[in-house]
Amino acid sequence: MTAYVIAAAMGVVGGFIAALAGVGGGIVFVPALALVLGLTQVVAEATSLLAIVPVAILGTWQQRRTGDVHLRDAVIIGLGSIATAVLAAFVADQLPQEVLRILFAVFMVLIAVRIWRGAERDAGDDRRQPSRIT
Amino acid sequence: MWRLVAVGAAGGALSALFGVGGGVVMVPLMIMLCGYNSRAATATSLAAIAIIALWGTVTYGLLGNVNWGLAAVVGIPALLGVVIGVRVRARISAVLISRVFAVLLVVSAVLLVVNP
């Protein structure tokens, strides 16, 4: 029961980060599912992807009036991802679990470094720029 | 057009390999290749993630890797987090939040490796 409460709390954190940073929250969902709920790495990742879908939809919906969501571009990006996403899922499914887990841990540290450095950059104001220069 | 497809290809690979949205690679690429500013890139990236995560979910679902019940355990509370995040975004220190989050990620990464 405690594990479920902790995982749910991590879910809230993941959604919070998603809203702040424009990511899906998976970087929090995967450790919640693997470390706290004890799923294997590949099942944690697969389950995280399912949890991301409604989070991304709600986050997009909440920003619909800001003019920052370029829906047509998002659809092109989404369609452009099909082949690599399907392929990567097969690769992750075949990799030994400990290898996938270590790769994910390395990925987390890289993200942490990026977030730490990006915090300084994002403190600057880019609001005066047009939303997209085409 | 083809730059957007390339952004999608990179995002899709990262997304399905690691069970994430892929925004972390797409946002900088959209800024560098497609002329986006960071706010429009994060917002548009999130919309793209809704589609990208779907492909991984379907593929993993067919391979039998998705745990539907536990997805709800983290995914439904996450919706609350999104609502809170959007509300407080303008009022909090993004730098402080980012730093705390970065430290938590490193701690989680260490736990993942030492406690398999």
Architecture overview:
The complex is a heterodimer of chains A (134) and B (116). Chain A is mainly alpha-helical and 134 residues long. Chain A has one domain. Chain A has helices spanning 2-21, 26-36, 41-62, 71-80, 82-94, 97-123. The longest helix of chain A has 27 residues, at 97-123. The model of chain A is unreliable at 125-130 (pLDDT under 50). Chain B is mainly alpha-helical. Chain B has 5 helices and no strands. In chain B, helix 1 (2-18) packs across helix 3 and helix 2 (23-34) packs across helix 3. At the A-B interface, helix 1, helix 2, helix 3, helix 4 and helix 5 of A face helix 1, helix 2, helix 3, helix 4 and helix 5 of B.
Main sheet attributes: strand count, strand direction, barrel closure of chain B: none
Mean pLDDT of chain B: 87
Q: Could you tell me the mean pLDDT of chain A?
A: 85
Number of helices of chain B: 5
Which regions of chain B contain 5 or more consecutive residues with pLDDT less than 50?
none
The assembly state of the depicted protein chains is: heterodimer
Work out the count of structural domains of chain B. 2
- Structural class of the helix and strand makeup of chain A? mainly alpha
SSE pattern of chain B, N- to C-terminal: HHHHH
Morphology of chain B:
globular
Number of helices of chain A: 6
Strand content range of chain B: under 5%
Global outline of chain A? globular
Proportion in β-strands of chain A? under 5%
The succession of helices and strands of chain A, N to C, reads: HHHHHH
* Relative helix content of chain B: over 70%
Distance between the amino and carboxyl termini of chain A: 52 Å
How many domain regions of chain A? 1
* Total beta-strand segments of chain B: 0
List keywords for this structure.
heterodimer; A: 134 residues; mainly alpha; 6 helices; 0% strand; B: 116 residues; globular
